[in-house]
């Protein structure tokens, strides 16, 4: 089957790896991908998707798996098509040249770095709301709170990539259980919520317009492109010529898990809260979990929901830091400077700390940042660049002619044009 074709030649194989058994490392990566994707975007998805109405949400739910799986598989194949040990910035330069490589590396950085800013704001808001509404204590000044939280996460980052991936995979287990528990807990509280709009079948033009503007948020909500480069490099190191086949298996299982879990959670939320309450949550700049904690007069939910949100946002911050730091270091190297690795690591961490702290203190609209920065810029890297490479790069010619390529390109164009429309409007 062409979709399962190897993305590297036999000469790149470094180990006599076999695909006959599923390893613990495969499970770790599957959960690491899941952990990177499930964060602030997922916790804001019920708000944004629910405000669009019932039928747009149903259509978005049907698109969720193919949209995320085919796009991330394409980006993984792109990284695997490069030389042994090459990350995404190296592969871009290898295929497109130095100038194009520098441009796309810049876009790669700006596709991921705004997500760190979004998570910094979301994390600060979650902890501040928890202290005020559940602990009934006055939060410290926002500047101090955000600085302490971001500094704590960067302390974990200093432990290294493998520690981050393992920590994220361990955090996924309790998070899956907690998110599932909360979604089930909401079932008796279903009031119909979004079903009140089910009888109102929107006009085709209105439906398309709603879907058009919602696609960027969906792209962001299931995105884990920042960790794909490290994932692909490790797969090639582990499986050599079999890396594409095994990485596709890992990706498909990770996406089935995240889509099933997220959609159950989303529908449980939008069936519990009215459109007016979802609009209120958006106005308060809170995640759906923080809003639910304040909404229900239940001590368990009041304490559990913000803690779940904290874990989700924190682990996604860690996963996205890998990609953001990789992009920033690539930019520094492409300027011709060659600082010592430790110096580059410390400078990168200091830059991340200062900028994330400033934005978290200013507290801009999270959904606004997702709509105008996150989804569309990610789409250009995640959806369009691998499809362009399939058309132009000989190493990826084997993937040409697949229907999934047209679908991925169409979704990427929708996300980008939605940004242009939002900015003009």
UniProtKB/TrEMBL annotation:
Keyword Endoplasmic reticulum among record annotations: no
Membrane topology: Multi-pass membrane protein
Ranges annotated as spanning the membrane: 29-47, 53-75, 96-122, 142-160, 172-191, 211-233, 254-273, 301-322, 343-360, 366-385, 406-424
Main location: membrane
InterPro entries: Amino_acid_transport_2, Hydroxy_aa_transpt
Subcellular location: Cell inner membrane
Superkingdom classification of source: Bacteria
Keywords from the named record: Amino-acid transport, Cell inner membrane, Cell membrane, Membrane, Symport, Transmembrane, Transmembrane helix, Transport
Any Pfam family the entry gives: Trp_Tyr_perm
UniProt-recorded name of the protein: Serine/threonine transporter
């Amino acid at each position: 089957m062409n979709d399962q074709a190897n993305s590297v030649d036999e000469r790149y194989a470094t180990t006599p790896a076999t695909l006959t058994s599923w390893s613990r490392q495969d499970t770790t990566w599957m959960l690491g991908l899941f952990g990177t994707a499930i964060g602030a975007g997922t916790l804001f998805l019920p708000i944004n998707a629910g405000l669009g109405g019932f039928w747009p949400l149903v259509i978005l739910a049907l698109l969720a798996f193919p949209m995320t799986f085919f796009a991330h598989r394409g980006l993984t194949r792109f990284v695997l098509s490069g030389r042994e040990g090459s990350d995404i910035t190296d592969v871009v330069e290898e295929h497109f040249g130095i100038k194009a490589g520098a441009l796309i590396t810049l876009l790669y950085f700006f596709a991921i770095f705004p997500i760190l800013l979004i998570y910094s704001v979301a994390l600060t808001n979650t902890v501040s709301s928890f202290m005020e509404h559940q602990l009934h204590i006055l939060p410290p000044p926002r500047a101090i709170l955000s600085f302490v939280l971001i500094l704590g996460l960067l302390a974990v980052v200093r432990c290294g990539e493998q520690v981050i991936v393992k920590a994220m995979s361990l955090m996924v287990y309790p998070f899956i259980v907690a998110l599932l528990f909360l979604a089930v807990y909401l079932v008796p509280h279903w009031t119909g919520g979004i079903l009140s709009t089910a009888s109102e079948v929107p006009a085709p033009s209105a439906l398309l317009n709603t879907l058009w503007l919602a696609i960027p948020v969906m792209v962001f909500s299931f995105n884990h492109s920042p960790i794909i480069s490290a994932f692909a490099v490790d797969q090639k190191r582990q499986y050599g010529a079999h890396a594409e086949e095994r990485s596709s298996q890992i990706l498909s299982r990770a996406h089935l898990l995240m889509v099933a879990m997220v959609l159950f959670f989303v529908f449980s939320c939008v069936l519990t809260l009215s459109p007016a309450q979802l609009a209120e949550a958006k106005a308060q700049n809170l995640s759906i979990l923080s809003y639910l904690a304040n909404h229900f007069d239940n001590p368990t939910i009041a304490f559990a929901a913000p803690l779940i949100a904290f874990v989700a946002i924190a682990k996604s911050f860690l996963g996205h830091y890998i990609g953001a730091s990789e992009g920033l270091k690539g930019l520094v190297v492409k300027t011709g400077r060659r600082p010592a690795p430790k110096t580059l690591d410390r400078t990168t961490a200091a830059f991340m700390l200062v900028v994330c702290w400033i934005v978290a203190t200013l507290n801009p609209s999270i959904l606004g940042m997702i709509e105008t920065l996150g989804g569309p810029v990610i789409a250009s890297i995640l959806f369009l660049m691998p499809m362009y490479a399939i058309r132009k790069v000989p190493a990826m010619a084997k993937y040409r002619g697949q229907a999934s390529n047209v679908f991925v390109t169409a979704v990427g164009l929708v996300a980008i044009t939605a940004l242009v429309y939002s900015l003009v409007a």
